[in-house]
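I am writing to request your help with a piece of structural work I have in hand. What I wish to show you is a protein chain and, alongside it, a tokenised description of its three-dimensional fold. Could you please explain, in whatever detail you think fit, how the structure tokens follow from the sequence? You will find the record immediately after this paragraph.
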Amino acid sequence: MAGGLINDENMGDVWPVVHPGRAADEYGSASISPPGPFEVRSFQTIVLTYTVGRFGLDDSGSIKIVQRFPNDGGRLQVDDPTAMNFVSARASKYCRLTVVPERNGHQRPWERSLRIIVGGGSLHQGDTITVTFGDRSGSSPGLQLQTFCESAHEFRVLADPCATGHFIPLPDRPHVAIVAGKPERWKAILPTHGKPGASFALGLKAEDLWGNPSHQAGRALRLEADGTVQGLPGRIDFPAGERSLRIDGLVACSEGVVRIRVLDADGILLTASNPLVVRIDGATGFWGDLHGQSGETVGVNPIEEYFAFGRDLAFLDIMSHQANDFQITNAFWQRINTLTSELDDPGRFVAFPGYEWSGNTPMGGDHNVFFRKAGETIRRSSHALLVDRSDLDNDANTTTELFESLKNEDCVLYAHVGGRPADIARDDGGTLRTAVEVHSDWGTFEWIMKDSFARGYRLGLVCNSDGHKGRPGASYPGASQFGARGGLTCFLADTLSRDGIFEALRRRHHYGTTGCRMFLDVRVSLPTGGRRFDTDPRYGQSGSQEVNHAVMGDIVQTTDGTCRLNVEVAAHAPILRVDVLNGPDVVDSVRGYSKSELGDRIRVTFHGAEYRGRGRQTTWKGEARFDGAGIERFQRINAWNHDRLLAQHDDNTVAFDVLTTGNFIGFDAWLSNAAGDLTIGTDHAGGRFRLADIGIDETVVEAGGLERQIRIARLPDICRQDHLKHAFDLALKPTGDNPIWIRVTTEDGYNAWSSPIYLFRGDA
């Protein structure tokens, strides 16, 4: 099988069980030219030729050319031969061909479809239909390709030779290779938690505009470090043709914060790394993205490429694979277990077998299942896309059944908000469900953490990608329905091993970010101490210890009415704000700047979603106009989709047509005179605001929907604080839980959240 093509026995798709003849090759053949490679988002002309098989192609018979769901390339059109993405078809003998682009014209995962219907005649064996994607004969610029790399992007051909409505896939699998573009930005990635004398690695790569590691980045580089780092070369050559470089064996000699700068050969700064905080008595943190899919289900590229990207190009320490269960064939479940066992390398890389239990929301909604070891039984939500029904009795159709079937298994579960948002109120997962996922490519969902508090659960907080575009650990949304960059989780564990990470999972010793690698240290000190429980005592007998402090994820009983929260944050960018929450409520905050530092810089951001379900995308279309003030400088924030409008229109106007899915997007405008008015008009909310009234506290405009808002604030012209330590004195509620957690916001639009510390003063 050609490299990059998915093994058919691992594919979770279903084709008709009846067909006219003996084998699929009787219904024709297909070929494609040229095969590439093509750069992402480039314009191309690709010609696919279908040759009719022995049954012919009857009048009103048709073929379909289908592509996978993640494809965010140009929408095919047949109406304007001068416009992009024009597609044409011609037959080798006379007949009418009706060409119909179908956005959801076939079944998952082949949802993109082009249907070509024969009329006014029929085609015989050996006749051909030639389909030109990006036909330039009428001055079209061509077919715009997708934003992400794919080693074998298929144009799969299905035939309905007898006009029955049943489409049979041909054995030929025409495909092209799609590769990264030229480098646009460099990335230098360090661990965030270290100890003096301990070895660590630096990861280097250059990404193209859409976030793909580029193979066109070969050049000489200079490296400089804050502090003394043994083993760091002053000069290196980034290899031509390679997409990443890992420098192992580095050692920080003393406590402090290490940042490494990457410069070109002339000394011009290309990028700086995230911070590595080195402490003698500090925790050890390992970074993971435990939630994503490959091409065997509803992603792209084979599972082997999925893991290779996360480990070698995103520099992850921990991964899992989370295919939709109703698409996981038994052969693919075996492959998941075998491959994660082969890749698992304690001290270097941890891989867990697992799957996404994908029940509909009324049945409990999406949950991620992670096993400590291989060989466990998969308990699917259904067999919706599986022909083999021999293990149907193993299914768990509701979360009630799922929790019951897994109660004696060595596994943990996350609640996920994806196409089928988890309904955590439906069932209490007990000790099995350890966390909720508050951020992924689907958006940001603080509301599920707050739902957890309302139910009295004591769950941790994670962020992952649920990436479908083959980029775990560095998952950008591209130009599709996904509106956010994928998240990451930092696990605070003694060892990088399955046992060590599972201990962190079960103790909720982890925090999440919207994709950056930020250092967080969150600790509570208790005046007279308390009792920390090894497991949630509500679910039975638990070991416990007397303590005078607690870290994120701990469950502690105390008689104290107050606590001191000590927070340290070190980020890759200036810190705007650290919010402290007790349950759903913000109880204190600290900023990385003071009121006296405010300048003539106005930030406008759009937040929220339509509702909790699959169609949560909110479009913000309109403009922001500064009357009496000119825009001297303009900067986009969280604007990952480069095809959507968010730009300075003239000297005092910003135009936008952007998407949020629970996350936020916006802009900064540095003004020549911040004394006029700001008028914002969108399809959801707006208003006119005196610039003189916009200060350090945000002006918030409610816009309906789910936590949908416009926020306006004034910032310093330059922010500088990227390392912050602060102590908060907090009052504790006398009854119920006090879930103490923080939310960090950086200047460039990233968030981080700690798992809560659960303090309670009464009974468990």
Summary: The radius of gyration is 27 Å. The chain has four domains: 8-179, 185-278, 285-515, 597-716. Helices lie at 303-313, 330-343, 399-406, 446-455, 498-507. The chain has five helices and 56 strands.
